[in-house]
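Hi support team,

I've been running sequence recovery on a batch of backbones for a student project. Most finish fine, but this one hangs at about 90% for roughly twenty minutes before it completes. I'm not sure whether the input is malformed or the queue is just slow. I've pasted the structure tokens below so you can try to reproduce it. Let me know if you need the job ID as well.

Thanks,
M.K.
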């Protein structure tokens, strides 16, 4: 600056003030966003299978025959086993997915490319969960369905285990973790039940 004339190459005082203000506001916004997500993660609990002494003693489910015919609605005792019993019954992968809420790696599941006609049953208790009629290729790397075989046979639960709050899906009869459901599926439901192969057993019909 010379002779009282402001040099055009220097930022004006008010410009420096606005720039500093914008930086402070931007930093504050970023900090607020981090705090919001941290709070959201701490206030929305991760979904998990019910413990032996949690939940109802009996549940109402819909049973299906081996050839896929609906047999009717029944009330049954919830299938409850110790952790040791589940480990003995299940493969290592199925145990971690169904009982510990793990997720198999995409494009690795045995049932991803299963296109035969049949029923997908719970690997833990054999309850019918999905029909091949509702299976579609979602491109995600996991078996996907636009609806369960009977809405009574699955349970939705809010899952805050990741930054994005999702809806976990479990088996009504034994509480096995199956996967998650999203609202980006095809018609007529618009839903995508994205399941783990390790949670399911395929029973071919015909």
């Amino acid at each position: 600056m010379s002779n009282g004339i402001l040099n055009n190459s220097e930022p004006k005082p008010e410009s420096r003030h606005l720039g500093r203000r914008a930086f402070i506001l931007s930093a504050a916004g970023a900090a607020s966003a981090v705090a919001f997500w941290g709070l959201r993660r701490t206030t929305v609990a991760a979904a998990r299978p019910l413990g032996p002494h949690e939940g109802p003693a009996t549940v109402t489910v819909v049973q299906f025959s081996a050839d896929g015919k609906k047999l009717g609605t029944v009330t049954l005792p919830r299938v409850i086993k110790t952790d040791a019993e589940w480990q003995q019954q299940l493969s290592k992968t199925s145990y971690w997915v169904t009982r510990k809420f793990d997720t198999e790696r995409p494009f690795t599941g045995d049932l991803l490319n299963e296109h035969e006609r049949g029923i997908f049953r719970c690997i833990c208790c054999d309850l019918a969960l999905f029909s091949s009629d509702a299976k579609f290729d979602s491109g995600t790397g996991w078996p996907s369905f636009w609806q369960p075989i009977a809405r009574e046979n699955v349970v939705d639960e809010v899952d805050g285990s990741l930054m994005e709050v999702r809806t976990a899906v479990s088996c009504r009869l034994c509480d096995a973790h199956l996967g998650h459901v999203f609202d980006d599926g095809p018609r007529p439901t618009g839903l995508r039940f994205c399941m783990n192969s390790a949670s399911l057993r395929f029973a071919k019909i015909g």
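--
Follow-up from support: It reproduced on our side and the slowdown came from queue contention, not your input. The chain has three helices and eleven strands. No action needed from you.
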